[in-house]
Amino acid sequence: MRFSKVRAATGVLACVALASTLAACGGSGPDAKASRSPSPSPSSASSSPSAGEPVTLTFGVYGGSRVVGAYSAVAKEYRTIDPSVTVKVESWPSESAMVDSLAHGAKAPDVFLTPRADVAALTDVDVIRPVDTFLEARNVDLGDGYSRVAISDFSEDHHLTCMPYSVSPEVLYVNTDLVDFAAMKARGLPVPANPANGKWSLEQFTAALQFASKPRRGIAGAYVAPTLRGLSPWLAAAGGQLVDDVRTPTTTTFSDSLDALKALQPVLANPRFRLTSKQLSKATPLQWFERGRLAVLPGDRSLVPQLRERAGLHWDVMAMPTNGGGAATTGDYSGLCLSKVTEDADAAADFLTYLISTDAVTDVAQSGYVVPVNQQVALADGFKQPGRAPANAAVFTDAVKGMAILPAARTLAELQDATATPVRRLFVRGTDAEVLANRIDELSSALLGPAPSTSPSDGASGGAAASGSPTP
């Protein structure tokens, strides 16, 4: 059997718990053993059924039918590896639907995919069982094959909460008929020196929008969602930053990112470049892109299979346009988690170990939906798929190097609600970016900052607090 032949290095998970010690973790790749561990995890050995007895596991995933199908195929393949285990796939239409379901009391699948931004919410309702001791017992090597940033982002209290699985950097999908670099160059417009590497400057990007936008023919340049999430990759690429601390934010940092905002405003606030409200009432930005009426659409890897099926649509991917060189964007990781209430923790851990093997990750990566965290897969043809769109597939993996992660999902949602009005006004021509930046930071600080302390003397006439002098 394919998976049973995979071998892993030993003794490396002792390094996993602390990000600061990851540099000491060696290894050639993130492969793993398939057979049940001869030394079960102490946390589950007493309650787990005996190895070899029939076991039914549930595997929780989210997304459209195509990506659910890819995960289902991998789950079915596991039956050939361990005939005693049957894996049933449970799916939700979106990550938010899954998290809401689990957070409101639904039984968690034995193994389930979870966005990093939602791990805190699921930890609060006691759904997740840390995976580090289980992976250590199975000799899983998290050395050079995995990003230290990904491991750190899934670590809490010296434990690896969930196993990093995929990453979703925001990139730009570009209609190559509308954005024709050769034609632009012939007109003397600024173009990337090497479009094949997917990098361009904000100046070159703006020139591409001017070239591609044809309002009278109903062709728009780019779509940028007028929300904090929609603005975040553009802000990062222009040299700005969304919040002061992604793990425990106390404020947005728009006033500190003023130069980036001012550089972006000519693009964000130019009505010539945008889909009109009438267009948006008739179809989504993705549908306009598929129809050849939108030149540039932000998105992650999950759009690839759908766009491949669109006959006559010629497209590629480019990085977010940078302001001053380098590469930057925003995005997040998804991880594989173990349920706190699984009836057979060892069987679930064996299945999770199989899911992160090079062969299994390659099978899912070939569906076109995900960017694997497993570097052995991400840098190989199984992910790049030469000869299939996009030609610049390396843009996805390159973008991860400069990717800033977003705050926890619930925090970002609260921030978006609190700052919605001034954020939308950043997309209006003639507005003052500095005034709006200060207002956004003011609203976010009121939401996230510590509550003001109340002194016993507050409000007393003539008291020290009223005069501004220190309270004894």
TrEMBL record:
InterPro entries: Bact_solute-bd_prot1, SBP. PROSITE patterns: PROKAR_LIPOPROTEIN. Keywords: Signal. It holds the Pfam family SBP_bac_8. Coiled coil: none annotated. Residues 35-51, 449-472 have a biased composition (Low complexity). Residues 1-23 form the signal peptide. Residues 29-52, 447-472 are annotated as: Disordered. This is ABC transporter substrate-binding protein. It comes from Nocardioides eburneus.
